[in-house]
Amino acid sequence: MARRQGAENFESNKKARKQAKKANRTEASRDERETLVIACEDSVSAPLYFNAIFDDLKKNHKIAASSLVIANHNHTDPYGVLQDLLKHPNYQDFNHQWIVIDRDEERTHGGGHILENFNQAITRANSKNIRVAYSNPCFEIWYLLHFEYRNTAMDRDELIGKLVRDIQYKKNELPALNQEQQNTAITNAQNLIDSWKDNQGISRPATDNPSTTVHELVILLNRFKSTSEK
């Protein structure tokens, strides 16, 4: 009798192990099917930041190595960034498609781009169901929000100058950021967006300075990580 129970328990445990392995394989396959492609306006700050997240996800086997891609960088204006994404091979096959762009108004000493370029990029991206992570004035506002909440207008030079003074920021180096600071940045970014919305709940990316929706893309990437940990 004891031998029979032992055999039954063994078969039961064996079956449970098989089911667990099957569930793990299914979960892993589901995670690997999550794919994302982004195109960035600048060739340094945003790619540096997102590549660090991508590398961490891949290194810890949270997602397949080919699942997260940054499109080739050929343009430094918002509408051109959208073109970079549209020209990426099979971009439509990715589950998630994003452009990361800056408002970056034209500056008297050169640089920046016209309002129409920014607005056209958002309008056409929306028409193609491509998500937009915009920043006004530029991507560096996302970094600032890790350290403080800022709701008064500034231009690109003022923002970068503040980061250089406050955290010794260098464009070609990723600031030392931890998860708690990221959580703070997400909260600050969402509060900024909410503060700009009118009575109909509409925000205006081109004039809402400062503001950013980079946090929405970061939340998505965090979801990749948390899903694989379940």
Write the layout of secondary structure elements.
Elements: H1 2-33, E1 36-40, H2 45-59, E2 68-70, H3 78-86, E3 96-102, H4 115-127, E4 131-136, H5 140-144, H6 156-167, H7 179-196, E5 211-212, H8 214-228
Parallel strand pairs: 1-2, 1-3, 3-4
Antiparallel strand pairs: 4-5
Helix pairs in contact: 3-4, 7-8
Shape: globular
DSSP strand count: 5
Judged by helices, strands and strand pairing, the structural class is: alpha/beta
Order of helices and strands: HEHEHEHEHHHEH
User: How much of the polypeptide forms β-strand, as a percent range?
Assistant: 5-15%
Main sheet strand line-up: 2-1-3-4-5
- Separation of termini? 39 Å
Radius of gyration: 22 Å
Low-confidence stretches: 20-31
Specify the number of helices: 8
On the 0-100 scale, what is the average pLDDT? 88
How does the major sheet shape up?
5 strands, mixed
| Helix proportion | 40-55%
How many distinct domains? 1
Summarize the structure in words:
The chain has 230 residues and is of the alpha/beta class. The protein has one domain (34-228). The chain is built from eight helices and five strands, in the order H-E-H-E-H-E-H-E-H-H-H-E-H. It has helices spanning 2-33, 45-59, 78-86, 115-127, 140-144, 156-167, 179-196, 214-228; strands at residues 36-40, 68-70, 96-102, 131-136, 211-212. Strands 2-1-3-4-5 form a five-stranded mixed beta sheet, with helices on both faces. Helix 4 links the parallel strand 3 (96-102) and strand 4 (131-136). Helix 3 packs parallel to helix 4 (115-127) and helix 7 crosses helix 8. The longest helix is centred in the N-terminal third of the chain and has 32 residues, at 2-33.
